[in-house]
């Protein structure tokens, strides 16, 4: 397909955009056999990743009694985005998002697919990829970007097969930030700028002095497979990797994403000491699992930009975990199975998962809510 015909194909696609708070729902436009990005013939080498764009992760929601996989994205200053989520030559979701008007503020969109369909389309492949072609206004001029990401296929399969309503997927435990004020029981994380009363879950430790958002950050997730190490901003940049680096972020309506580690001079040196990796066996299985745990006390949980300290009733809470993993298990397991070390190293892969709190996700499988940054 030529560039021109591809352009008309994309322009002809009609998106169904339904307001879900600040998130727009986009129809899935790809059949199980079509991976539309592969036909797009713009020179990839000429385009760079979109620094304003974030994949917000997958969730499971209920629609008229049927579980659906929801994929979420967000960007700022966006004019146009064509996205494709695919495994091998089989697309799970693809579509076009065109904001009603171009503005500097955050814009978010989502795509749904019944869980049974998503499982059928997720063919035998070791990778799950996300591909976004976006146009964004920069200093009044439109610029094109190409963002490619490698998501954890094992994590997505685990989410799609999750059927225990009594526990969260990935055995996610969020101690901070969370809804600490159980009197209100509203699944809101309320950060008060100048008080410690009412529905406040958190307050600035020196709340009489305007500064920046400060939070304790503590929790854990359990993922299938052997994860050898986490990947931070410096690892991703030096290796030219197609993953979103391990970090925690806050994103309010009028400003870009601010990430805890990236706001420091060296994200890896700052964040790595707060993480631990430990290994366990999956229940009723010999399969290894990896627990990623983090514990960042509030004195280190400062998002060092004054714009993070702003009143906003839906500040997205972002968590990315990027890692190296190996389908053969640990080096010891692979050796016992007869694999040589060089073969083991060639099997090492990189991917990531993303978890995001936003209003419309409160009823999702992860129950992650946004931060409400407010006065009392």
Task: Describe what you observe in this structure.
- With 376 residues, the chain is mainly beta.
- The protein is built from 7 helices and 21 strands.
- The longest helix has 10 residues, at 3-12.
- The chain is globular, with a radius of gyration of 21 Å.
- Residues 1-21 and 38-42 have low confidence and may be disordered.
Name the shape in a single word. Answer: globular
Helix content: 10-25%
Strand segment tally: 21
The secondary structure category is mainly beta
**How much strand content do the residues show?**
35-45%
Radius of gyration: 21 Å
Contiguous uncertain segments of 5+ residues: 1-21, 38-42
- Largest sheet, if any? 8 strands, mixed
Gap between N and C termini: 57 Å
Summarize the structure.
The chain has seven helices and 21 strands. The protein has 376 residues and is mostly beta strands.
Q: What topology does this entry show?
A:
Blueprint: H1 3-12, E1 19-20, E2 23-25, E3 54-63, E4 66-76, E5 78-87, E6 90-97, E7 106-114, H2 115-121, E8 128-138, E9 141-151, H3 153-160, E10 173-176, E11 189-192, E12 202-203, E13 217-224, E14 226-230, H4 233-239, E15 247-251, E16 258-259, H5 267-271, E17 275-281, E18 288-296, E19 312-326, H6 331-336, H7 341-346, E20 349-357, E21 371-374
Parallel strand pairs: 2-7, 11-12, 11-21
Antiparallel strand pairs: 1-2, 3-4, 4-7, 5-6, 5-8, 8-9, 10-13, 13-18, 14-19, 15-16, 15-19, 17-18, 19-20, 19-21
